[in-house]
Amino acid sequence: MKTLTRIFSTVTVVAVLGIFLVSLSSCGTVVQSGNSNVTVTQKVNVKTNDFYVEVDRIIPLGFPQKETLDGYYLSVKGDTLNCMLPYIGKANLSFADENAISIEADDYKISPKSSYNEKKKGYQVDFSFTNRYCAETFDVTVELYDSGYAYIRVTSAYRDMIQYHGQVTNRPTIKKIIKKK
Protein backbone atom coordinates (compact mmCIF):
# COMPACT_ATOMS: atom_id res chain seq x y z
CA MET A 1 0.00 0.00 0.00
CA LYS A 2 2.85 2.43 0.86
CA THR A 3 4.50 1.65 -2.49
CA LEU A 4 1.27 2.39 -4.36
CA THR A 5 0.86 5.72 -2.50
CA ARG A 6 4.49 6.64 -3.21
CA ILE A 7 4.06 5.86 -6.95
CA PHE A 8 0.83 7.89 -7.08
CA SER A 9 2.43 10.93 -5.39
CA THR A 10 5.47 10.73 -7.70
CA VAL A 11 3.24 10.58 -10.80
CA THR A 12 1.20 13.52 -9.49
CA VAL A 13 4.32 15.64 -8.89
CA VAL A 14 5.70 14.81 -12.36
CA ALA A 15 2.34 15.65 -13.98
CA VAL A 16 2.05 19.00 -12.17
CA LEU A 17 5.67 19.84 -13.01
CA GLY A 18 5.05 18.93 -16.66
CA ILE A 19 1.97 21.15 -16.86
CA PHE A 20 3.91 23.99 -15.24
CA LEU A 21 6.78 23.67 -17.74
CA VAL A 22 4.41 23.53 -20.71
CA SER A 23 2.61 26.67 -19.51
CA LEU A 24 5.94 28.48 -19.03
CA SER A 25 7.10 27.63 -22.52
CA SER A 26 3.87 28.97 -24.03
CA CYS A 27 4.42 32.35 -22.30
CA GLY A 28 7.35 33.05 -24.60
CA THR A 29 5.44 32.43 -27.81
CA VAL A 30 5.60 35.28 -30.29
CA VAL A 31 2.78 35.76 -32.76
CA GLN A 32 3.94 37.34 -35.98
CA SER A 33 1.61 39.64 -37.81
CA GLY A 34 1.47 40.19 -41.52
CA ASN A 35 2.82 37.95 -44.25
CA SER A 36 5.73 35.91 -42.87
CA ASN A 37 7.03 35.29 -46.42
CA VAL A 38 7.77 39.00 -46.83
CA THR A 39 11.21 39.92 -45.50
CA VAL A 40 11.85 43.01 -43.41
CA THR A 41 14.00 44.51 -46.15
CA GLN A 42 10.99 44.27 -48.48
CA LYS A 43 8.82 46.07 -45.90
CA VAL A 44 11.37 48.79 -45.10
CA ASN A 45 13.07 51.10 -47.53
CA VAL A 46 15.08 53.41 -45.31
CA LYS A 47 16.75 55.15 -48.27
CA THR A 48 13.34 56.49 -49.26
CA ASN A 49 12.09 56.52 -45.63
CA ASP A 50 9.24 54.13 -46.27
CA PHE A 51 8.08 51.96 -43.35
CA TYR A 52 5.03 51.12 -41.24
CA VAL A 53 5.19 49.97 -37.59
CA GLU A 54 2.18 48.32 -35.98
CA VAL A 55 2.46 48.86 -32.20
CA ASP A 56 1.82 45.85 -29.96
CA ARG A 57 3.26 47.05 -26.65
CA ILE A 58 3.30 50.39 -24.80
CA ILE A 59 6.30 50.93 -22.47
CA PRO A 60 5.70 54.04 -20.32
CA LEU A 61 8.34 55.42 -17.95
CA GLY A 62 7.56 54.47 -14.35
CA PHE A 63 4.51 52.34 -15.21
CA PRO A 64 4.13 48.67 -16.17
CA GLN A 65 4.23 47.95 -19.88
CA LYS A 66 0.94 47.18 -21.55
CA GLU A 67 0.14 45.01 -24.55
CA THR A 68 -2.23 46.48 -27.08
CA LEU A 69 -4.05 45.42 -30.22
CA ASP A 70 -5.90 48.70 -30.59
CA GLY A 71 -4.59 49.73 -34.02
CA TYR A 72 -1.81 52.10 -32.87
CA TYR A 73 0.84 52.72 -35.51
CA LEU A 74 3.62 54.92 -36.86
CA SER A 75 4.06 55.34 -40.60
CA VAL A 76 6.75 57.22 -42.51
CA LYS A 77 6.54 57.55 -46.27
CA GLY A 78 9.17 59.85 -47.73
CA ASP A 79 9.03 63.05 -45.72
CA THR A 80 5.48 62.44 -44.43
CA LEU A 81 4.58 61.14 -40.97
CA ASN A 82 1.28 59.60 -39.90
CA CYS A 83 0.92 58.17 -36.42
CA MET A 84 -1.55 57.41 -33.69
CA LEU A 85 0.15 56.54 -30.40
CA PRO A 86 -1.37 56.52 -26.93
CA TYR A 87 0.37 58.25 -24.04
CA ILE A 88 0.63 56.91 -20.50
CA GLY A 89 2.76 58.89 -18.08
CA LYS A 90 3.36 62.23 -16.44
CA ALA A 91 2.64 65.32 -18.52
CA ASN A 92 3.52 68.84 -17.36
CA LEU A 93 1.13 70.55 -19.72
CA SER A 94 -2.57 71.30 -19.55
CA PHE A 95 -4.65 69.91 -22.37
CA ALA A 96 -7.75 71.82 -23.49
CA ASP A 97 -8.81 68.92 -25.72
CA GLU A 98 -9.11 65.41 -24.25
CA ASN A 99 -7.49 63.98 -27.40
CA ALA A 100 -4.38 66.13 -26.93
CA ILE A 101 -2.83 63.61 -24.55
CA SER A 102 -2.31 61.15 -27.40
CA ILE A 103 0.58 61.52 -29.84
CA GLU A 104 -0.85 61.95 -33.31
CA ALA A 105 0.21 63.28 -36.70
CA ASP A 106 -1.67 63.39 -40.00
CA ASP A 107 0.45 63.95 -43.11
CA TYR A 108 3.01 65.95 -41.09
CA LYS A 109 6.16 66.92 -43.02
CA ILE A 110 9.37 65.72 -41.35
CA SER A 111 13.10 65.56 -42.13
CA PRO A 112 14.12 62.02 -41.14
CA LYS A 113 17.77 61.09 -40.70
CA SER A 114 18.53 57.38 -41.17
CA SER A 115 21.55 55.20 -40.45
CA TYR A 116 22.30 51.47 -40.28
CA ASN A 117 23.84 50.04 -37.10
CA GLU A 118 25.79 46.89 -38.02
CA LYS A 119 26.24 45.90 -34.37
CA LYS A 120 22.48 46.06 -33.62
CA LYS A 121 21.57 44.75 -37.08
CA GLY A 122 19.03 47.45 -37.74
CA TYR A 123 18.24 50.95 -38.89
CA GLN A 124 17.80 54.02 -36.73
CA VAL A 125 15.59 56.83 -37.98
CA ASP A 126 15.45 60.16 -36.09
CA PHE A 127 13.03 63.05 -36.63
CA SER A 128 10.94 65.67 -34.83
CA PHE A 129 7.33 66.77 -35.24
CA THR A 130 4.69 68.91 -33.58
CA ASN A 131 1.55 67.31 -32.15
CA ARG A 132 -1.56 68.16 -34.14
CA TYR A 133 -3.52 69.25 -31.04
CA CYS A 134 -1.04 71.67 -29.47
CA ALA A 135 2.32 73.28 -30.14
CA GLU A 136 4.26 70.50 -28.40
CA THR A 137 7.34 69.19 -30.22
CA PHE A 138 8.31 65.53 -30.02
CA ASP A 139 11.72 64.02 -30.76
CA VAL A 140 11.34 60.50 -32.13
CA THR A 141 13.82 57.67 -32.59
CA VAL A 142 12.66 54.58 -34.45
CA GLU A 143 14.82 51.47 -34.41
CA LEU A 144 13.94 48.97 -37.15
CA TYR A 145 15.63 45.60 -36.70
CA ASP A 146 16.33 43.00 -39.39
CA SER A 147 14.25 40.55 -37.31
CA GLY A 148 11.11 42.60 -38.04
CA TYR A 149 10.81 44.14 -34.59
CA ALA A 150 10.72 47.88 -34.03
CA TYR A 151 11.14 50.21 -31.06
CA ILE A 152 9.83 53.75 -31.04
CA ARG A 153 11.09 56.23 -28.41
CA VAL A 154 9.28 59.56 -28.02
CA THR A 155 10.57 62.43 -25.88
CA SER A 156 9.16 65.88 -25.16
CA ALA A 157 10.12 68.78 -22.91
CA TYR A 158 6.65 68.54 -21.31
CA ARG A 159 6.20 64.79 -20.78
CA ASP A 160 8.01 61.73 -19.52
CA MET A 161 9.63 59.68 -22.25
CA ILE A 162 7.57 56.77 -23.60
CA GLN A 163 8.53 53.81 -25.76
CA TYR A 164 6.59 51.48 -28.00
CA HIS A 165 7.39 48.02 -29.33
CA GLY A 166 5.93 46.75 -32.56
CA GLN A 167 6.30 44.86 -35.79
CA VAL A 168 7.35 46.21 -39.14
CA THR A 169 4.42 45.27 -41.35
CA ASN A 170 2.98 46.07 -44.72
CA ARG A 171 0.74 49.12 -44.74
CA PRO A 172 -2.92 48.24 -44.41
CA THR A 173 -4.77 48.77 -47.64
CA ILE A 174 -8.18 50.35 -47.77
CA LYS A 175 -10.38 49.10 -50.57
CA LYS A 176 -13.49 50.92 -51.65
CA ILE A 177 -16.57 48.80 -51.89
CA ILE A 178 -18.65 49.76 -54.89
CA LYS A 179 -22.27 48.70 -54.72
CA LYS A 180 -23.82 47.54 -57.96
CA LYS A 181 -27.18 49.04 -58.77
Would you write up a description of this structure?
The chain has about 180 residues and is of the alpha+beta class. It has one domain: Lipocalin, CATH 2.40.128. About 15% of the residues lie in helices and about 40% in strands. The chain is built from two helices and ten strands; from the N terminus they run ααββββββββββ. It has helices at about 1-25, 40-45; strands spanning about 50-60, 65, 75, 80-85, 105-110, 115, 120-130, 135-145, 150-155, 160-170. Strands 1, 2, 3, 4, 5, 6, 7, 8, 9 and 10 form a ten-stranded antiparallel sheet that branches. The longest helix has 26 residues, at about 1-25. It is globular.
Shape: globular
Question: Uncertain segments of ≥5 residues (pLDDT<50)?
Answer: 10-39, 175-181
Number of helices: 2
**Largest sheet, strands/sense/barrel:** 10 strands, antiparallel
Strand portion, in percent?
A: 35-45%
- The topology string of helices and strands comes to HHEEEEEEEEEE
Distance between the termini: 81 Å
